[in-house]
Amino acid sequence: MGLLDNFEKGLERAVNGAFAKTFRSGLQPVEITAALKREIDTKAAVVSRDRVLVPNKFTVRMSTGDHQRMASLGPALIDELVDLVQKHAASQRFQFAGGITIALQPDPGLSEGMVQVDSQNVKGRVAWTPVLDVDGRRFPILKGRTVIGRGSEADVTLDDSGASRRHAEVQWDGSRARVRDLGSTNGTQVNGAPVKEAVLEPDSVITIGRSRIVFRVLAQADPSDTAAGRRVDPTASRDDAGGFWGPAR
């Protein structure tokens, strides 16, 4: 099994692990992931030897019933899909013209279990959006300090007896993140290792009591960007089309 095969299996495990229990029939989240990957690979445009531009705005169409089930997951599913699109593009050294946008839409013309993806290259600035995923719930990280704990005064409240009232905080300066234990009773772990303070890389897992908290940085379209929505000519120069790889670390 090659590197690409391993990566594809990783995508399937990530999506299925997060959402498979919710779906017993009909369209599965992993099928959306596969459809997005096919769309990216099919629409990849070679601009130069070291630049391959791919779509960054996706509309995923599905039956009304499938859409209702997907929508029940809230923003966590979109976050997961954006994250996996980023990883696939990075693995192939593809580039985007701007932030990634993924919208799910019902299509009465599609039967249950079917999915279709439409895409565009849209020029725009990237808004690197840090979030904490907790049991399918998304918590945006505030610039400065975001406190995690069991108490009502925490920014991210955990229903977990193993968490202290003010257990830990995540610090975000606009490009980098750190986690710091706030003198908790049971301690804080990052990727399985106990820490007092540590740098958070994208996809780091913070463990507090029984709670598993995933730190993500999503490359989303900047809603304040006046250039957003402008389609990109794939033959444009690097200066015209922009492009990005990931947040500063």
TrEMBL record:
Keywords, ordered alphabetically: Phosphoprotein
Every FHA domain range: 146-195
Matches recorded under SUPFAM superfamilies: SMAD/FHA domain
One of the Pfam families matching this protein, by short name: FHA
Disordered: region residues: 224-249
Basic and acidic residues: compositionally biased ranges: 228-241
Signal peptide range: none
Protein name (record): FHA domain-containing protein
Source organism of this protein record: Agromyces flavus
